[in-house]
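::Amino acid chain::
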Amino acid sequence: MPALSQIKKDIEFYQGLHSLLKVLKGIAISQYHMWEKKLQPFEVFSHYIEGFLGGINLEEINHPFIIPPTKTLAVVAVTSDAGLLGGLNREIVNRALDEIKEGGVFIVVGERGKLYAQGRVKEVVAFEGIKDDTKFNQAIELRNYLIGELVNGRIGVVKIVYPRAYSLAVQRIEKEILLPYGLKEKESYLQLEDFILESSIERIVEYLVFLWLGRKLYDIFNMSRLAEFAARFLHLEECTQKLEDMDQKLKFKYFRLQHEITDRSIREIFAGRLNYGYR
């Protein structure tokens, strides 16, 4: 049985660790709310783009953004290089790999996601993890890569898997189809002959989808960053609960051992007195 002093040291150690986790949780909560306020809604920009494209019968547009040149699937997994996320990256990679079980191109954002995927897929196209000061340029870089691969006929369908936090305590792994671009059917479309178009309708659609995709990826990167803070809070909360349970067990063990030592000392004292009195 461990010495009483060692158990006491363990209790002090875990109490100190508990205090540290409490501070880290507070930081994660602050970061989450600060980042939440920074997010600029994509819906406003998307509303105007989709509002125009929604008036066009896209079935009549012969463009690889609308009609994929091949059925080859590319799946993008957006992961984080930060720590204390409680298996979030692994879950994202697993969901993304499930999408390409029958073949496809696996693309991952983040070094940790790349490490999780290695050995499980033939080839991994990796991009640097999201950084706050360069995330817009990173979104543009990924967009240009995807469009280049699609235009050259190497891929036809693009899906993306990423984490999204709906609140500090609720988050999900989301999956979306980015390309080909599509909208719900409408009963009526714009009469394009009523407009003077300087460019062909195909070029207009191409440019609008080009803009939309860059902003969409940027927005996903921001949402992934927000989900990172939420995941860290949940992981730290789980660790805190485990530490509290461990602390209770150690305290019980400490008091039980202390009681046994006290009881043994009392018995030895009485035994000594009895022996002394007997003599």
Notes: The CA atoms of residues 33 and 231 lie 13 Å apart. The chain has six helices and five strands. Strands lie at 73-78, 105-109, 124-127, 157-165, 171-179. The first strand starts at residue 73 and ends at 78.
